[in-house]
Amino acid sequence: MMGRKSFAMRLLSWVHSFLIFEGIYVLAAGLGHIRGWDAVCFFARGLWLFVPLVLTDIAVRRCKSLAVFILSATVLTGCMWIFAGAFPAGGLTAFICLYRCYGKLKQGEIKRKMRQMPGEAAVKDDAEIWETPNLLDSPKAVHGIVPVFIYLALLPVRRHELSGLTLFLLAAQLCVCFLYTYLECFWEFINKNRNVANLPVRAMKKTGAWIMGAGILLLVLFMLPAAVYHKEPLENLKFDVSENADFHVGEIRREEPEPDLMMEELMRIKASARKTPPWVMAASKIVSILLLLWLAFMTLRMIFSALKTAAAKFSDDWEDEVIFIRKPGESPGGRMEKAKKKETWRSPDRRIRRLYKRAVKRRLKAGVLGSETPLELEQKAGFQKELKACDIHELYEKARYAQAECTKEEVKQCVHIFSNFDR
């Protein structure tokens, strides 16, 4: 999921996701008793799902801002709600957008942990961070459990034509998974051995295409008769409870509840108890209000912190934090952690570093690897040609490494220098 995919693989992933969500339409038609031509039109409306599947896949790869993606997803969900209906198109579009966003946040967390790992051994030891959601991006055979559950849910409805359609969706989904796995392994082999001498890449691509075409032909020859003349193995299963019932309604006896002596004693004590003084009631109300305000403040603080973390993961922004590693045997509350300066979003150090990163990104089209020093970044961005390059280098190093905090005058100086750079 982290690497680049060919257009054929992305097309197969879109078809795979469409087949999964089309099963939701089949289930909705069975539960809603939609029949005849209305059912055909209802299934055809499922083709609208290709729009959010394709657009969200493109947006999640191109968009770098979480706010922009959420706004685009809201607009897309509203359009699908209007043109394709609230259910199930609108709900499925919202699910697709949320799932794409979750996958993007998970990838951002993986990249951030990769930057903090000292070597390849740590990457192999911490294998859990590589687990990313792949329901909409990487077709797997295990995803066929979704149409299986839909098939079982349609059995009580006794709609054999919908059960057959569900089995057809399952077969098509397995075929798509087979083709996707073949292309994934094929391109992985080519990319791994591309630099080998005398490797005929073009000839291998043509041979791979012929093999895939033969596989598709064999799948059609073997599965088409089963799709036309199939018979569901569970279609004769009956759900008539009345035939095998061993009891009658008239035989049910109503048991009278026994008196609860404990509850009667508690009610008698409550009736004889004194009333609570008014000042105690007022104090309890004040304490309750203060507790609710504190809970509301902590909740808003946690939400704001989560949104900041999500925006940082979604943007895939390169970090310039200095990570200190404690010496062996040093306690967690050592001198190095106590000397770490506290920074906020509006602090002068953070503002100078943000201005520096924006200026580098505007001039550096090749992107930032994350392992360059400030001097190497300035050389790639062409800052050495500017008159104030030394000043901005010193300001950034002070904001990033120095223990002393920068001042507001230095922030104004940094803004003035970068404004002259853009002219």
Description:
- The chain has 423 residues and is an all-alpha fold.
- Helices cover 66% and strands 0% of the residues.
- It is built from 16 helices and no strands.
- The protein has helices spanning 7-31, 36-44, 50-62, 66-83, 86-116, 120-125, 145-154, 160-192, 201-228, 261-272, 278-315, 335-338, 348-363, 374-381, 389-401, 408-421.
- Helix 1 packs parallel to helix 7 (145-154) and helix 8 runs antiparallel to helix 9 (201-228).
- The longest helix is centred in the C-terminal third of the chain and has 38 residues, at 278-315.
- The model is unreliable at 119-130, 241-253, 323-329 and 331-339 (pLDDT under 50).
Strand content: under 5%
Helical segment count: 16
Q: What is the average of the pLDDT values?
A: 76
Helix content: 55-70%
Number of strands: 0
Structural class: mainly alpha
> Span from first to last CA?
41 Å
Provide the succession of SSEs. HHHHHHHHHHHHHHHH
Instruction: Describe the main β-sheet briefly.
Output: none
Radius of gyration: 32 Å
Return residue spans where pLDDT drops below 50 for at least 5 consecutive residues. 119-130, 241-253, 323-329, 331-339
Shape: flat
